[in-house]
Amino acid sequence: MPTEPTDTKAETKTEKSAPRGLEGIVATTSSICWIDGDAGVLSYRGIDIHELAAHSTFEETTFLLWFGHLPTEVELKDFRQKLADARALDWRVVEFLKQIPPRSNPMEVLRTAVSLMGISDPDDSDSSHAANIRKSFRLTSQIAMVVATFDRLRRKLPIVEPDRSLSHAGNFLWMLTGEKPIHEAERAFDVALILHADHELNASTFAARVIAATLSDVHSAITGAIGALKGPLHGGANEAVAKLLTEIEAGHADPVEHVRGMLARKEKVSGFGHRVYKTEDPRATHLRRMSKDLSTAAGNTKWYDMSEAIEQFVRGEKKLNANVDFYSASTYTTLGIPTDLFTPIFAVSRISGWAAHVMEQHENNRLIRPRADYTGPAYPAPYIPVQDR
Ligand SMILES: CC(=O)SCCNC(=O)CCNC(=O)[C@H](O)C(C)(C)COP(=O)(O)OP(=O)(O)OC[C@H]1O[C@@H](n2cnc3c(N)ncnc32)[C@H](O)[C@@H]1OP(=O)(O)O
Ligand SMILES: O=C([O-])CC(=O)C(=O)O
To answer: What keywords were assigned to this record (predicted)?
Structure first.
């Protein structure tokens, strides 16, 4: 006996909606990263990002994120060694990189390569903490190698074998360019990796934690995280900034007038705004300076000058601050890195934070499964046979 459809949705209501986009919702506890968005403070395990950018290395910062304290000299040496020892891509991953079309999107290539790495990982079926650490070493070493190797192959250049004596930053630049990086470039890249390493419950890290919380494996969580990072509202914004700068230059446009037009058309300007920071993103402070210093040293401040003009205008007009993605675009361009590698390079760094969060999730796990505030047809809606529709 069919029941009469109700004319009210009251019965079908489940829960009251959280704010759109979960703004301001505290979804988990975590001891990895603390942000004060009003004061513009970012810290990893309580240590201010400015201290880490000034004194640390990517290896040391990754140790800090994974193990919760700064390493002793012996611990750091051991950590570096393990990261360097993991610089070996499985032949199936290399074959995949050789066989895909050179025009493939590098973020899609990376996402697929990480998924493939999961199949060939020696600890594949082991989700113990020790195995997760070993997987995290391999992923951190090899994501950088995948990005560099794919770029070499698509440019029809020979693959550069890793140099285990180099730092993580130095080895990436070496495998990408086939040249040993000068100290300034290696240090700038190392600092960029430190700045991008973690950022609390950003979209890709949240995605990774949701996947990890089903007790799925590290590679599945990181594959999902890469998919989330790719979007232009998140990590993909650094490429969008570079495209904007290139478009302005190609059209011989005035940067301020170009952006004024975008705002008038209600378009978003990539590299500005942030869900958490209501003041300057502390990472942008470093990237702005790096962009300026590197471009001055290179004798071409074109991209920096354009970026600075846009930043001043957007801040004045919309009260929006530059985020981490804005000046990373001109910094990486000045380092000679192809635009479509900017977001993969974000992943080269963020794997350290993702891994820390996946391990933290597994250590104190509960399934993440919120509710939706249902807005569809009232229950019970009638099922109308196909001939009567
Ligand atoms: C690593 C990272 O993920 S950092 C962020 C990278 N993403 C970007 O740079 C993309 C551009 N920025 C944005 O889209 C947003 O600022 C986000 C996604 C970063 C944050 O989004 P939210 O907190 O959801 O803010 P939301 O998108 O609702 O914007 C609030 C208001 O500010 C405006 N606004 C926010 N960012 C921008 C922007 N970059 N350009 C123009 N207007 C903007 C919105 O249009 C909106 O205005 P309205 O209230 O008049 O409609
Ligand atoms: O925290 C966020 O929402 C985005 C961000 O800045 C990051 O992931 O680095």
So the answer is: Transferase, Tricarboxylic acid cycle
> What's the complex ipTM?
0.99
CA-closest residue to ligand 2 atom 2: 202
CA distances from 102 to 144, 154, 167, 344 (A): 18, 4, 28, 16
Question: Which among 77, 119, 71, 79 has a CA at the least distance from the CA of 95?
Answer: 119
Q: Give pLDDT tens digits for 345-359.
A: 999 999 999 999 999
Answer yes or no: 274 catalytic: yes
Query: Are 42 and 33 spatial neighbours (Cβ–Cβ below 8 Å)?
Result: yes
C-alpha 269 to ligand 1 mean position (Å): 8
Q: Which residue in 168, 219, 258, 274 is the catalytic one? A: 274
**CB-defined site of ligand 2, < 6 Å:** 199, 202, 275-276, 323-324
Class of domain 33-232+344-363 (CATH, top level): mainly alpha
- Could you identify the atom of ligand 1 that is nearest to the CA of residue 323? 4
Q: How many CB atoms lie within 10 A of CB 129?
A: 10
pLDDT band at 16 (very low <50, low <70, confident <90, very high): confident
Q: Domain coordinates of the chain in residue numbers?
A: 33-232+344-363, 237-334
Distance CA 291, CA 255 (A): 17
**What residues does 166 pair with on adjacent strands?**
none
The β-bridge relationship of strands 47-48 and 41-44 is antiparallel
Q: Is 325 a catalytic residue?
A: yes
Q: Does 91 score more than 70 pLDDT?
A: yes
Out of 276, 277, 345, give the residue to mutate to test ligand 2, the one with the largest number of ligand atoms within 8 Å of its CB. 276
CA of 320 to the centre of ligand 1 (A): 9
Closest to 127 in 3D by CA, of 223, 210, 220 = 220
CATH code of the region 237-334: 1.10.230.10
Sign for the pseudo-dihedral over CA of 20, 26, 28, 33: positive
Residue nearest atom 9 of ligand 2, based on CA coordinates = 199
**Residue 355 in contact with residue 136, Cβ under 8 Å?**
yes
Write down the pTM of the prediction.
Answer: 0.96
pLDDT of residue 14: 57
Residue nearest to atom 3 of ligand 2 (CA): 202
Residue nearest (by alpha carbon) to ligand 1 atom 44:
268
Q: What is the pLDDT of residue 1?
A: 37
